[in-house]
Records
---
Amino acid sequence: MDMTNVNPHEDTLTFKKWFQNVWRGFSTAIKGMGITFKYVYSVKPVTIEYPEVREELPKNSRSRLFNDVQNCISCHMCATACPVDCIYITAERREKDAPKLKTSDGTAIRLDLKQYTIDTALCCYCGLCTTVCPTQCLTHTTDYEYAAYTVDSMKYDYTSPEIVAWRERLVK
Amino acid sequence: MSDHSTTSEWYKNPAEREVLKTDLLTLNMGPQHPATHGVLRVEIKTDSEIVVEAIPHIGYLHRCMEKHCEGLDYRGIIPYTDRMDYLGAMGMEWGYALTLEKMLGTEVPQRAEYIRVLVAELQRIASHLMFFGTYAIDLGAFSPFLYAFQDRETILRIFEELSGARLLYNYIWIGGVWNDITDGQLRRITKFCEEMSESLKKYHALVGENHIFVGRTANVGMMSKELCFDHGATGPILRGSGVNWDLRKNRTYGLYKDLDFDIIVGEGIKGQVGDCWDRYWVRMQEMHESIKIIKQCLDGIEEGPIIGKVPKVIKIPEGEIYMRTECPRGELGYHLISNGGKTPYRLKVKSSCFTHVGLLPEVAKGQMIADFVATIGSIDIVLGEVDR
C-alpha cells in the first residue's frame, strides 16, 4: 500500500490495514533480529577488559606532558602559546663565571630554570606548547593513567627529582 | 457549582464544564534527562500527555568562548573551536581556518586540501553515526547504538593516530594541517569505506525500515519549508524539509567544487516531507555521499607539502569577514572582526544548533511527550555548540 501522505493517526483502521500493520511489524522485526543475531558469532569482541588488558596509545598521542628540564632553555615560548595559561616558569640569569651549559642539540643555556610547573588539571591537551618548543624538550607522552585525589597534586614541577626520574620511562 | 450532590448532572452541563478546565502541568525535562542530548532543559506545559507549550532553557554549558577568544592569539583559538561541537570538531576547525586563510590570503597546498576534505567527511560520518545510535536509544532500541559506536571507533582511531587526540583534535591549522597522513592510514580508510557502505545498508534495514521506528517517526514533528525558513534552519533539517540547499555545493569551499556528490533532500517516503523519519533518512543517505567523497579524495590525493606559508605571529589585517561552512549539524558561520592586532576584536559564531533549538517550541505544540522526545532527537543538537 502506498503510505505517502497518509497520517496513520487520522486514518480509519480497516481489517486489511490491521493485518498489514501486523505483518509489517512482524516481518521487519524478524529482519532486524536476523541482523542482530549475526553479531552474536560473526563479530569479534571490540571492547577490551581494561585493568587486565591495556591498550597502547599511538606514538603521537597527546597525553601527559613531560618536560626534560636538562634541555630546557627557559624561553617561555610554551607559556606564551598556551591558550589556557597553565604553564608557570621561573628562571634566573646564569652567573657569568658559572660553567657553560648546552642542551643535547647544542643550544646554549643562558637561564637557570628554577621552576617549571604545568597544571595538568587546567591543561587542555591541545599540543600547541610542544609544537613551538625550540629544543623539543617538552613533549606529550603516551602516559594516561594519572588520576589523583586532589587538584593540587595535578600540578607537576618538572624540576623536582621524582618527576625528573620519569625520564627513564617516558623519553624514547 | 455550589450544588455537587448529583455529580453526573453538572458534568453534563457544558457551561459548568467550562469552569472545570483542567490545569496545565508544568514539567521540567532536563537538564539531566538522557533524551535531551546534553544539558538542555525544556520546560513543558502539558495537558495530560499533550504538550501545550515547550520552552527550551539553554546556557548550562556556556563557557564564554567568544569572549575568551578576544584575548587569545589566532592559533590558540583552534582548541576552543573544537570544544564547541565536540562531535564534529574537524568541521569547526576547518571553518575557522578558512576564515583566517581568506583574511590572510594564504594558499593551502593541494595535499592539505585533500586531507581536510577527507577528515571532514570522516567526521561527518562519525557524527551521523552518533546521531543514528542515540536516536535509536531515544526511541527504545539499544543495539544500534553499539553497532554505530563500533564503526565510529574505527574513525576515532584513525583520527587519534593522525592528530593525537580522539575528540578535540586541533588538527586543521591555519594554512594546512598538522600531521601528514600515511599510506597505511589511507589504506585503512579505503577498507573502512568498503565496510561502511555495507553496514550502513544493514543499519538502515535494522532501524529505518523497522515498523515500530517508522511508526514513532513518520508524520511526527513535521517542519514545513516555511517554518524552516522562518527560523533559519540549516543542514539536514532544512534538507529533510525538502529544500535543496547544501553549502558544499551552493557556496562551495575547499575542494568540494571538483568533487562529485549529490545533495540528499527529504522526500517523505514513509510519511510527509519534513517529518522525523525524513531527517533520519537524510542523514543516513548523507553518509553514503560522504563515502563517495572520501573515495574520490583517496584517488586524488598526491604527495606534497601539508602546510602553506603562514607568518610566525599571525596578524590579521583590519577588516571583517563572515565565512560559513557546512558542518554535520548545519551551517557554521564565523564572523571575525579584526583591528589589525594579534587577537581578534570580535569573533561571533553562528551555530546551527542554536537556531534549531528555536524550532522546538513551534513543533512541540500539540505533540505527545513521546513524540516530543523523538523530535528533539531528530534535530540532533549538541549543547556545546548551542551555548558555546
---
Amino acid sequence: MNYKVLEAEDIAALQQIVKDRERLLTGDAISEDYSHDELVGEQCFPDVVVKAISAQEIAEIMRYAWENHIPVTPRGAGTGLVGAAIPVESGILLDLSLMNQILELDEDNLSLTVEPGVLLMDVTAFVEERGLFYPPDPGEKTATIGGNISTNAGGMRAVKYGVTRDYVQGLEVVLPNGERIELGGKIVKNSSGYDLKDLIIGSEGTLGIVTKAILKLLPLPAKTISLLIPFPSLEQAIGTVPRIIREKSTPTAIEFLDRDVILDAEEYLGKKFPDNSSSAYLLLRFDGPSTADIEREYDEVARICLEEGALDVLISDTAERDESIWNARGSFLQAIKSANASLVEIDAVVPRSRVNDLVSYMHAVQEETDTRIKCFGHAGDGNLHIYVLKETQDEPDWDRKAEAAMAKIYQYAKELDGQVSGEHGIGYDKRAYLNESLSAVVLDLMRGVKKAFDPRNILNPSKIL
Amino acid sequence: MHSIVCIKQVPGTNKVNMDPDSGTLIRSGAEAKLNPYDLYAIETALRLKEQYGGTVRVISMGPPQAEAIIREAYSMGADDGILLSDSSFAGSDVLATSYTLSRGIERMAPYDLILCGKQTTDGDTAQVGPEIAEFLGIPSVSAVRMIQQADRNTITIEMDLQSEIQILKAELPCLLAVDKDIFQPRLPSYRRKQETKDRPVQIWSLSDLADQDTDHYGLNGSPTQVMRIFPPESGRRQEIWRDRGEVLADALFAKLQDLKLLPAVGRHG
C-alpha cells in the first residue's frame, strides 16, 4: 500500500490542529515505547505521535489523514500482545492515554461514561468505591478501557459475567474520514438495525476510533470467596471442570494452574504462593450476598472435586488470602516472560469440554517440535494462554521451531472447533493464523466490513486481515 | 513442641469506620475475620509441629461469635482451642486483655511456646504479646522473622531490628511475636473443616480461671481510658515537578532515598 510519506508541511498542518507543542512528537522525541507493545518483537516507529485530548481533535486529524492518505494507528497503554498498536506502516500514531477522564456516573441507569484512555484499574476502583461493579477482569489492569474495547477483552470473570462486549452499551466513534458517530446509548435493549457498536468492539482500531464509551454496571457483590483446589495431575484438574459446569454452579472464574508456572510467579513476585505442594490446581471464585450464601453454593462443587480426586479444597475468604492467590495468578504472563529469554504466545479458545484435549496435546507438540511450552488459562471458558519458550538467548533455530509448534497448536485448536484468539486479538502478529482458520467467505465478509468503514485503508492498516 | 497461639477476631474489612461522636469503632454490619497477622503465628506453630511433633492449641478472648475463628484455626490444622468469653471481660484495655489471656494460658499449661502475631488490624498496639509474657514470667521476643531451630529446652530465632538482624537463643517456654511473612500462611482446608465440624470449642468464663477477682478484668482492670479516637491527619502530600526526563529521574531517585524507600547508596553503587 502506498501511503503519503509525511513531510514538514504535514507536521505543520497537524500542529495547527493540535496547537499544544508538547502533544505532538517527532524524531528523537518519539520514545522507543511507541515502537512496540508488550509482547510482539516487531519494532516500527511512527513519523509523528499525537497525544490527543478530544474527539474534536481526533476528528480533525482523521480528516487530514483521510484527505492526504496518511496511515493512523490508535494506541492506548500499549499493553497489547499481538502488535495491534504498532504503527507498522508508520504515519501518525494517535496516543489516547491523555483522554483519561471518567465523565459521568449515572446511577439511575447504572452506567459509567468514560474516555478511552481511562485505565481498567481506575474504572474498577471508581465504581467499587461506590458499591458498583464493572465485571470484565482481564489480568492486565493497566490497560486502557479503549484497549479493552478494541480487543473485546475477556478476563477472569467471563464464566459468570461474560466479556467486555457484554458491558459496553454505547460508543462515540470517529470514523476514518473524520466523521463522528454515536452507536447504542444508555439503553438496555436495542433492535435498531445492524449492531455497529458490537462490530466496533473487538475491531482492534481498524474501523473507527473510540472516543467515548458508556459502560454497563452491576451492583457490587458483597462477598467473594475463592477455592484453590490441588489435584494430583493437570488432566484430573481440567477433567473436573465439565462436571462443575454441568452441576449448574456459577463460579465467576475457573482457572487452571500448573506448578511450574506457580514457581515462576513465586520467583517473580518474591512471595510464596499459599500452597505449592501439588502439580496442578483449579482456582475457582464465587461471589454472592454473604459468606453463608456462597458456602451453600460452593459446597456441592467442593464435594465433586474431592470425588474427582482433588487432594483438598482450600478456602480463601479474606482480602489478604485472595491477594496471595490472585496477585500470583495476575502475574503469570510477566513471570513467564521474566523467566525466559523470549517467547511467543497463543491465545486460542476451544469449547470448554475440549480444554483437556488441547492441554494434553502440548506434550506431543513439545516432543515433535523440540520446544518448551508452558500454559495456563481459563478452564471455565476454554481460553488458554500457551507460551512457546526460548529459555536461553542462544537456543539454535528457535524461531523456526516455535513457528512449527504454533502452527500445530492452532491447527489442533481448529480441529477442536476452536478459534485463534479468545481475548488478545489478532493484531499484526496472528493474521496468518486467522487466515488459515476462517473460511474464504467469512474472510471476504470481514474485508467488506473494513472497506465499508475505511475504503482508503488508512486506519490501523495491516492489522487483523 | 507444644504451642499455644493467641488469636483475635477483627472486623472483616481494613476500612475501619469511627463513630465521630462516641470515638469508638463501628463494628456493626461488617463481617468479622481472624486477624491477618495471627495467621503467621498459626502457620509458625503448624510448621513447628510438622518438624518437631507436639500440638497446636489456640486461645482467644471475645464474644461468643469469636468461636468462628477457633473453628477457622481448626480448619488450618490446630488441634484444640479455648475461647475466653465472659461479660466481665468486656471493655478490656491492653493490660486487662493480656492479663486475662495469661490466666487462660496458665490453665492450659504445660506448654513450650506461645506465639502471637505482630499486632492486630483493629487495635494495632502490638503490646498484648509481650505483656502476656510479663504476666507469665517467661522470656518474650518480638519481630521474629525466622525460626532457625529448636530443641527440647531452647529455640533459636532471628529478630528483625530493621537496621540489623539479631540471632537469639531463648529458653523454653517463651513467647514469640512473629513478623508478617515469616511463612506464607496456609489456607483453611475444606476437608479439615468437615472433619472438625463436631470438635468442641471450650468456652471459659471468669469462673474457670484461678483468679476470680473482677477488679482484675474488663473495664475494672483497665487503667487506660480512651478520651477520644480520631483518624490521623492524612499524610498524603503531592509535589508536582516539571523538567526533562533525566533531571526528573535523578530528582525522584534522590527523593526516594530521602524517604528511605531506597537504600542510601550511590546511584552507581
